[in-house]
Fold this protein.
Amino acid sequence: MANLIVNGLNLDVEVEPDTPLLWVLREHLGLTGTKFGCGVASCGACTVHLNGEAIYACQTPFEAVVGQSITTIEGLSPTGDHPLQKAWIAEQAPQCGYCQSGQIMRAAALLANNPNPSRDEIVDTMTANLCRCGTYPRIVRAIERAVKEG
């Protein structure tokens, strides 16, 4: 049994040390907003925050995060009123929506570290996440909107 801090809650979890964080979140804790996309850290659908930094949960073993703070899309804003979530809706960023929790988590980490990024900084950061529907222009606009309205 090991302790994790997930979305501000201290939780004891019993899994094999090499279990990917993605499966701990989804299968053991029921936090299904974090998605499985590729399993090889190429798409970013599984993006969560570890101590405020964006990481790929599919490639992060449980043993590497024991005792640390993890934030999932469910913990970004339980009421859905984070500036990015509101901007995502206003800009109609999602199409199929599958990658969007990872996109929002990557954008939230960017804005936490750089509250006023340039368009180039936004584009550069967001290249770590794949959107198979190609909604990149709307994603960039949503981040720019969140900066302005945030």
